[in-house]
Amino acid sequence: MRPLVDALLTHDPRERERLSQALLAMALLAAGVLAMHYFVAIGQADAAAVWWWSAFTLAGMAVFFGLIRSGVSRRWREPSLTVPQMVFALSSGAVAYALLGPGRGAVFPVVMTILMFGLFVATPGQMRWVSLYAVTLFGGVMAWCAWALPLRYPPAIELGHFLLVATMMPAVSILAARLSAIRQRSRTHRAELAQALGRLREQSTRDELTGLINRRHMQQLIEQEHQRCVRSGQTFCLAVLDIDHLRGINEAHGHSAGDAVLRALAQEAARHVRVSDVLSRQAGDEFVLMMSDTRAALARGGLERLHEKMSALRILQGSTALVVTLSGGLAQHHAGETVDQTLDRAHAARAEAKAQGGNRIVVAA
User: Fold this and answer.
1) Which helix (H) or strand (E) holds 261?
2) Cα(178)–Cα(172) distance, integer angstroms
3) Tens place of pLDDT for every residue, the chain, 365 residues?
4) ∠ CA(336), CA(337), CA(340), 5° rounding?
5) Lower CB count within 10 Å: N or C terminus of the chain?
6) Is 127 exposed, middle or buried (0-12, 13-18, 19+ CB in 10 A)?
7) What are the extents of the domains in the chain?
8) CA dihedral 256, 258, 259, 263 (to 10 degrees)
9) Residues 6+ apart with CB under 8 A from 86
């Protein structure tokens, strides 16, 4: 059964929704066809005319289903073809009204159900045009019936039916406008919620000052890299970097200058690391760089190039061009070692670089 349903409705959720709606509309009109044949059975409608009407109605809905199922309808602005289906169904209903004679009042509930399909899809403007079309169409059919067959369709009764239709249709348009406003507010609220959630996710993973990955998220990424390397047998390197003499910059030029140095350094460094590497700000002037799928010998070359780029950086603060240097420690992760142990060795190498006067990279043993 499931393969048959998939073959009929496809696997695409949006297409399934459109096709399910088309099948529901077909089922509604099929019920209308059965009702029409009931009136034939009790002698209130002409059998030949109803058979022609039934064939035309069901064939028309089958064409709509085929257009949606084949994907042809996706070329148009409204792939679900809801409004064209409504116009077709209303036209079919108007013909049924002319065929039913005394039983014609049964058409009105079907007409209202047809209009309900559009309430949740069509725009208020489309519903106004559909309502105007329905009023004009049924008004014309009622006028013709009252003129051509006054005994079967008494003019006073037809006028009453027309007033009913002319009252229902504007009411449907008003409901459509209200539902459209509700849908628009719902879409706006969903978009605002998605933006808020995106900002929260960004704030939970990014350092506010530099825009780099923050300490907590970096720890998660390092653990993930560690697990991947355990499975694959590969390795990775961690580098701990900090800015030499940032405290002196803060004291001489103010903390805003220190913040400017941190931002400029982070932005420049992010441009020069590999796409597969991750740079994070840990705290204060300390950064951690994770270099995946690489060993210390290769990682050191990349880190030295980054160090040179940072040393050449000039950060304008007023009329002063600030020159900053980095000290760093690099450690290759060893099999059987924890992430914290690798980080400790990188920290120790960084401390040794500081002890040697700074502005250099030291590789941990």
Assistant:
1) helix 255-272
2) 10
3) 666 666 666 677 777 777 788 888 888 888 888 988 998 898 888 999 999 999 999 999 889 888 888 888 888 888 888 888 889 989 999 999 999 988 888 888 888 877 777 776 777 788 888 888 989 999 999 999 999 999 899 999 999 999 988 888 778 777 777 777 777 788 788 887 878 776 767 667 888 888 898 888 899 899 999 998 888 888 999 999 998 888 888 888 888 888 888 888 888 888 888 888 999 998 888 999 999 989 998 999 988 988 888 888 888 777 778 888 889 999 999 988 999 999 999 999 999 999 998 899 999 97
4) 155
5) N
6) buried
7) 2-197, 215-363
8) 140
9) 114, 115, 117, 118, 122, 130
Judging by DSSP bridges, how do beta strands 361-363 and 326-332 pair with one another? parallel
- What totals of helices (H) and strands (E) does the chain contain, helices first? 12, 7
Burial annotation 266-292 (CB, 10 A radius, 16+ → b, else e): beebeeebeeebbbbbbeebbbbbbbb
Give the distance, in angstroms, between the CA of residue 53 and the centroid of all CA atoms in the same chain. Answer: 43
- Architecture of the structural domain at 215-363: 2-Layer Sandwich (3.30)
Q: Measuring CA to CA, which residue among 242, 296, 309 is closest to residue 270?
A: 309
- Reading the block at residue 64, the tokens are 């709509």
> In angstroms, rounded to a whole number, what is the distance separating the alpha carbons of residues 124 and 172?
10
